[in-house]
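User: Can you help me understand a structure? I only have the sequence.
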Amino acid sequence: MTKTMRLLLGASAAAFVATGALAETKIGFIGSLSSDTGLSTLRGAEIAIEELNAAGGYGTPITLVSADTGEDVTEGIKAYEYLAETEEVNFIVSGSIDDVSLGWLPRMQEYRIPTLDTWTSYIGIIDMVAEDPEGMAPYFMNIASDEALATLYINFGADVLKGKMGFESVVILAEDTAFGGAITGLVTDALAPVAGIEVKDIITYDIGTVDFAPIFSKAQASGADFIYQVSSVNSQVVSSQYVKLQVPMAMTGVNVSALGMEYWDDTGGAGGGISTLSPVPSVGFALDPVSQAFVDTYQAKYDSRPVIPHFNGFNAYHGVKQAMASAEAAGGWEASAWAGEMIQQDLKLEKDGQLWLRYGFWDYETVEPVTGRTYPHNAFFDLEAPYDFAQPSMVVVQWNEDGSVGVVYPPEYATQDFSLPSWVPAKN
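Assistant: Let's start by predicting it. Here is the structure, written out as tokens:
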């Protein structure tokens, strides 16, 4: 199909929803149907739609259709085209990984379908929103972008890794993906000048790697005090081999497999000692009453993995409801009108009388004070304590050698202290 034909189809779809208002509402899910990440988004959307329909829907019942990406860029493009052309959906909720979202993003710009990313965090997409407000109007990301994630992680490096543990240097061990490259760049640029931690080496590996012994040997040879891991694909492999090989260096960073309760079983119990950045809510994270009620509903409905939704499941649950409220306020799904309402959505959740989580979006003018830049259509986040504007952009969680897990940073959200694995010697 030619680009011109796609543009015509997109225009026709926009005209249909503009004239049909909310007479028919069809939501499309795009993501992997065989991954914990994808299923978290899908199930969060399913529960939100069930609750919306129980409350009367919007004129007619809201329906959900799905398209599997298989975590593959080409399949992701096909999946988006299917939702737009065959299913003619009004709105798309995405559980895609970064590379896949970057693949289908041009299709979103052509079809002009309101779309919410619940997992992808690539700051380059938010930059595109800032540079092309009209073309990117249909796009929203309700997870803090990776720049915000990395920025707060630098504080963890300064306060805990250097301040408490005495670490002076790091070797970065990163997968060869867009996500891996983005996080590596952000961490490299900030660890040395801000946290005072020297980057000794950057080791990039293919996501199909099965033998990490040579890679860990190279990491040790760098002379660094600890490993910063960046892994969103097949993270269980590098995690379990780190433990089984008893690598004598602490390993922290971004480990996506460690974001779910299945991590312990997936590593055969060889996952203790690893810490990871995680958007919130995370494993080991204390929940507010609204979030706990969502988890209770989730666990009553599903008996397969993931047993607790990843953070993007919460994002999908609240995001679908906010998207529907925006369409109702806009009188339909025309991209610009819908976006104008979506950017005003703001849900504040409290725990014990204090702000705990906030689901809202940055506008085009507001400058975030720590980074000094704007984040239009990105989820609200707070980079400095006290967290009275929004929740932190991330927390650091650590899996213990007994299989338990808890939040170790920032202190306001911590449920346990950061510690070294039993086989890693403390720095003198």
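Now, to help you interpret it: The domain at 147-278+394-413 is CATH 3.40.50.2300 (Rossmann fold). DSSP finds 13 helices and 14 strands in the chain. Let me know which part you'd like to focus on.
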